[in-house]
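Reviewers of the previous submission asked for a worked example of the structure-prediction workflow described in the proposal, so we include one complete record here. The input consisted solely of the amino acid sequence. No template or homolog information was supplied to the procedure at any stage.
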Amino acid sequence: MYLDEILVAQKRDEARGVTSICSAHPYVLKQTLKVFERPLIEATCNQVNQFGGYTGMTPGDFVRYVREIAKENNFPFENITLGGDHLGPSVWQDEPTDVAMGKAEALIRDYVEAGFVKIHLDCSMRLADDPEGALDVEVSAKRAARLARIAERAGHENLRYVIGTEVPIPGGATEHGEGVSVTRAEDARHTIEITREAFYSVGLQSAWERVIAVVVQPGVEFGDDFVLPYQPDAARELSLFIETQPLVYEAHSTDYQSRQALGDLVQDHFAILKVGPALTFAFREAVFALALIENELLPSHERSNIISLLDDIMVEQPEHWVKYYHGDDREKAFKRKYSLSDRIRYYWTIPMVQQAFEKMMKKLNQNPLPATLLKQYVPDVYTMAIQTGKLTPENILLAKIQNILDDYAQACNPR
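From that input alone, the workflow returned the following structure tokens.
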């Protein structure tokens, strides 16, 4: 298994890693298959679950969806590793333990039976009947072991587990900060030891041998309009500690880090780099650029008006952003379009948005895109487009996404 190869290479002190693509967006997945020979594609518990999640897909649906994209792009599906992220009771944390954990067990079972093999066990959240305050790490570990037992019953020896939960806020922070606290090495050690004891207590010694990574906080974060870059010196103790363990680190929210920072993370044994919003942000950038080109080329009655349409729908259906974007009306309007958290990504599949997008793409495909407008609105991919002669709207979208993927590919497989 490719994940095992990465682990072995890291233990030989080779700076190799794997990029975890946390997105269901078809353009992101299409370009992922062009950049990586053995991609790792992950779904999260709120994105995909037995009730459909926000994508409307069950684990089985998601596997079929990825398989179809692979087929359309002549990519061998067997080369794809599928992972489940934050699998646990997160979606149901407002419910009592028995109910929430029962649903989490069904979630794990469905993921494994559908063909997911990389399983992040995350039971860090307080449930409705838990005491106030942060959940005790021993309780979290016992719940994770409970879910691992379900996975083992449903799965096979191909399963690989990720433990630990000390991660940035999913989708980015909501407030500015001077920095975040890097996980202390002693806390990482405690997490590993407590979780191992929990596995052993329910007879999961064999499963523990397939725990490959622990999630920690390396000191990276992003929010609406800021990025906290990785600082190797701040994570030095943490980096040295994992060299004594048969594991590597998994780093969440690495979006918007520089290529150098990503390479430093891999060098410091953060071998699994998760990325999501940065990829759909790149797609959003490209769509907005094409909409501006559309405004220059087409009369008003023929335009898609996709930018204003998207915002209208986000205002009418605010559930995906209203808890995350703060400020006055003007500030929130700006964030709806341009926040690095990119909560606009939840709206691309709405039928009216899809129709507007398809209308724009169809119109712009009718004639070659003027190089002058590409240079004006997408200068970062203009040179690439000129050199390859690929000036179509779709290739502009894919090129934007590839710019992000290339940074990860270089960081994970330095030459």
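Confidence is low (pLDDT under 50) at residues 168-172. We consider this example representative of the routine output the project will generate in years two and three.
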